[in-house]
Amino acid sequence: MGFSVGFVIGFVGVLILFHAAYSTTQYKGLLKITEDDFSGPPFNVVVELIVGLVLCTWAAITVPGIFLSIHPHSDDNRMVSLPDNLDFIIFNHRGKVLVPEINMKSEH
Amino acid sequence: MAGHNESEKKSSDAVNDLQTFRAENLQSNMKVIYYSRTFLSIIGGVIAGILGFTGLTGFVFYFLVMAITSVALIAKAKFSIHTYFDSWNRVVFDGFLGGLLSFVLFWTFAYDIVHIF
């Protein structure tokens, strides 16, 4: 199972989120030293979170697979292969034998 | 002859009653939607935890994330929902409550790691 582009993008997004979490803990430590209250995350963390969310949204949309049409007559649902046992299927019918006889009788 | 006509009529009714869409493809599309929603609820939970949301704000944020997901999924379906799903509810609401549980789990998890420890 190879890594698709979407998967790599999602991985990068998760890494960015982890880095944002780490930056926030550092910022909290700084606040502890300066004895300020936490009013909100710093600007660079907010930017990282937004970038991470966008990347992860991209991954979540592209990675799980594509939508398949549910219309019975659409191009996605055309049967493109014949069964493998065609050699064992007999195309024969009693009409093959009967029809010429009937024609003969009607002629007489 | 009457019986023959009757049975023919019945069979044609059965054909008319038959579902007019592919159930397997619909199921596969639903699976794709569940994957997307679950993953984005987890990501949304982590983000809400890092931002330090508490109480109602977090749930409002969850609604926001799910709205973004719905818009993205509709865009993925090229804005023609009825080609891929039988109703709008499938793409807008399915997987909402299950995602909420994952969201709360990762929200509290990230909040604890970032803000408490």
TrEMBL record, chain A:
The chain crosses the membrane at residues 47-70. It is a multi-pass membrane protein. InterPro entries: MMgT. It is found in: Endoplasmic reticulum membrane. Keywords: Endoplasmic reticulum, Membrane, Transmembrane, Transmembrane helix. GO terms for cellular component: early endosome; EMC complex; Golgi apparatus; plasma membrane. GO terms for molecular function: inorganic cation transmembrane transporter activity. The keyword Ligase does not apply. Pfam families: MMgT. Component of the ER membrane protein complex (EMC). Belongs to the membrane magnesium transporter (TC 1.A.67) family. This is Membrane magnesium transporter-like isoform X1. It comes from Populus euphratica.
From TrEMBL, chain B:
Keywords: Endoplasmic reticulum, Membrane, Transmembrane, Transmembrane helix. It is a multi-pass membrane protein. The keyword tRNA processing does not apply. One of its GO terms (cellular component) is EMC complex. It is found in: Endoplasmic reticulum membrane. The chain crosses the membrane at residues 32-53, 59-79, 91-111. One of its GO terms (biological process) is autophagosome assembly. InterPro entries: Emc6, EMC6-like. The keyword Transmembrane applies. Belongs to the EMC6 family. This is ER membrane protein complex subunit 6.
